[in-house]
Amino acid sequence: MVGQPEAVVRLQAQARCVRSPLAGSGGAIVWHVWADRRGGHAPLVLLHGGSGSWTHWLRNIEALASSGREVWAVDLPGFGDSAAVPGAQDVDALLPALLASLRSVVPGAPCDLVGFSFGAMAAGLLQAARPGLARSLVLVGAPGMTTTRPNRVDLRGWRHLPELSAQLAVHRHNLAAMMFADAARIDEAALQLHARNAERDRLTRRRLSNTDILARALERVACPVHAIYGEHDALYRGRFAELRAAWAASARDFRGLHLLEGVGHWAPYEQAPAFNQLLLQLLDAPAP
Fold this sequence. Notes:
Layout: H1 6-13, E1 16-22, E2 27-34, E3 44-47, H2 61-66, E4 71-75, H3 91-105, E5 111-116, H4 118-129, E6 134-140, H5 164-179, H6 188-199, H7 213-218, E7 225-230, H8 240-250, E8 254-260, H9 267-270, H10 272-283
Parallel strand pairs: 3-4, 3-5, 5-6, 6-7, 7-8
Antiparallel strand pairs: 1-2, 2-4
Helix pairs in contact: 3-4, 5-6
Protein name: Alpha/beta fold hydrolase
Organism: Comamonas flocculans
InterPro entries: AB_hydrolase_1 (IPR000073), AB_hydrolase_fold (IPR029058), Epox_hydrolase-like (IPR000639)
């Protein structure tokens, strides 16, 4: 297995690790929390994307914690260090276990819930299932919003390749095709953590991102909802008018679709300073 980037090791050393037992798995759902409680902010919960882990937020956590927030980042069931829900195939099967875990580790007042890609679907579905869970939703690079499939992306297989160098070459290709607008921004840390996360992905048959599952869930969500995409997001490049219409028709308190210039699907990593600034601005927006 590819080693951890130094930035991950350093950030992990600053966190408290919380393990929430996952029934029927013999394992746990793993959370990391960075606490800097100032200003009376709601707890901030981060849900990562598919084939990922909490490290999808590697370049965001310090900025978010330094704003005075208690930041909780999970390895979703079936990803990273968390156990898998027995028999689970997609995001819908994770919800009961994830909701129980979230309520056990972050009890009490509503949180601010931020999801990226697959995690954006999970966040919206959680709030629809449990109104009052979140004070606000910020959904980043979210699929599941239209009945037409997202754009086709040229992703290549790597598990059959015996040599690590060949595997890393495919991972770099896939990052360029799916996650980054500018391949020159794929640094060694991004390549390492993507390879490591992909090795631990046990939910490889995901299909619900090709449906409008999130749009239908948002019809039941009353809290403020913000959407963020990179302007070159491979899934929706050239289709943002369609997306805006879907968001406006679905979310009852939709606060807008925000496009980050010059970045692709993994906007929180590719252009972290701009993303962090925008996210904090949205989180600090006045309540309805």
